[in-house]
Amino acid sequence: MKIVLKNLTKVFTNKKTQSEVRAVDNLDIEIPDGKLVGLLGPSGCGKSTTLFMISGLQTPTSGRIFFGETDVTNLAPEKRGIGLVFQNYALYPHMTVLQNIMFPLTNQKISKKEATNRAHVAASLVQIEELLDRKPAELSGGQQQRVAIARALVKNPNVLLLDEPLSNLDARLRLQTREEIKRIQRETGVTTVFVTHDQEEAMSISDFIVVMKLGVVQQVDVPQVVYDDPINLFVAKFLGTPPINSFLGEIRNHKVYIGNDEIMETEFEDQEIYVGIRPEGFIVADDGVLSCEIQQLEVMGRDVSIIAKNAACEKPTLRAIVDADIKVPATGLVKFNLKPNKVFLFNRETEYRLGKEPIVESAPIENEQPIEANEAGESVSTVEE
Ligand SMILES: Nc1ncnc2c1ncn2[C@@H]1O[C@H](COP(=O)(O)OP(=O)(O)OP(=O)(O)O)[C@@H](O)[C@H]1O
Ligand SMILES: [Mg+2]
């Protein structure tokens, strides 16, 4: 079932102080049928609120929600055909696993026999058939989470909504369970929204990613494109471990400078910028364009992490990852050449990537032109900030 969110907005108003939080601001996305979309962003950016609005547990302040062609904005949660899984799996402790999974069916007019059959199908999907007689307390965290997923699937939902379903699991189990979720999603073909603040999790599991910041969507695309072609500094910084290195830089005469080092040419005009360089974008070279001072090396099997200083780096140190075969001195000066597709330039003020700035939308003028493009100096200058 396709999900369409149209200008979806949720404003929470504190009754005492009358202060407002725009938890979700004008969200406009379409989730194709049968896909798994990752809602990704830092704590408080509105991921859960978005999910709750899709589920019907929260009512939007404005905007519409469609499942397929049906407007479900005012439909009660239980009528939407959703399966929900939360971070803390909230199983009923006094019930067996089987009873837990069957529970969503007990209020429906379904025979006990059919309910049991469907519970078995859901249990086999998440591979916990041998656990059906146990109580939740007798299960590991990962097993409990699988029970919760089976319970969400037992009603054959149109839409599966998962809110940080893996965050209570240890690292290994997280990895394993996320692969499971992907498999289950593929096998059932259920349209799924997966909320996480973990970029690696989102990258690995999603057909496409929605990156959010302060209630506002930043970028929607397949994971690799969001990584390779970030729209702004926030997105560039949010995806990738170790994170992108960010430098104060400048463009002069179509040349990009970090400090006094001229690192590359550019088509863009003179301005102050941020230069983002992914850790894998550095190449150690005697004739390198960027000089840094090595602080420490971390050898990690295939790779070496070079931790180095550069005065223009936003952080005290930068991190470059190079092949373990490459000879790198343990201290002293190191010079890097840069892989052009791993270097991104951002407007210092707006933090948009150069060339990716949105066209101003605020002016109610048809056939709107960018302000500076109007050389006749006519009425277009009524555009207001
Ligand atoms: N019931 C509420 N009343 C008032 N403010 C709320 C309410 N629920 C959420 N908020 C606020 O809305 C914003 C978004 O919250 P939300 O829970 O959607 O974030 P999130 O992205 O899920 O964060 P996390 O990763 O921490 O779970 C936050 O600023 C939060 O404080
Ligand atoms: Mg949340």
Rg over CA atoms? 25 Å
Please, what is the CATH homologous superfamily of the largest domain?
P-loop containing nucleotide triphosphate hydrolases
Fraction in beta strands: 25-35%
Largest sheet descriptor = 6 strands, mixed
Gross CATH architecture of the largest domain: 3-Layer(aba) Sandwich
Q: What is the distance, rounded to the nearest whole angstrom, between the alpha carbons of the first and last residues?
A: 40 Å
Count of distinct structural domains: 3
CATH topology type of the largest domain: Rossmann fold
Mind telling me the CATH class of the largest domain?
Alpha Beta
- Specify the overall morphology: globular
Question: Helix count, per DSSP?
Answer: 8
Structure notes:
The protein is of the alpha+beta class. It has three domains: 232 residues, 3-Layer(aba) Sandwich (Rossmann fold); 106 residues, Nucleic acid-binding proteins (OB fold (Dihydrolipoamide Acetyltransferase, E2P)); 27 residues, no CATH class. Helix content is 22%, strand content 33%. Strands 6-7-8-3-9-10 form a six-stranded mixed sheet, with helices on both faces. A hairpin with an 8-residue loop joins strand 17 and strand 18. Helix 2 runs parallel beside helix 4 and helix 3 packs across helix 4. The longest helix has 18 residues. It is globular. The C terminus is likely disordered. The structure holds adenosine-5'-triphosphate and magnesium ion. Magnesium ion (MG) binds next to helix 1.
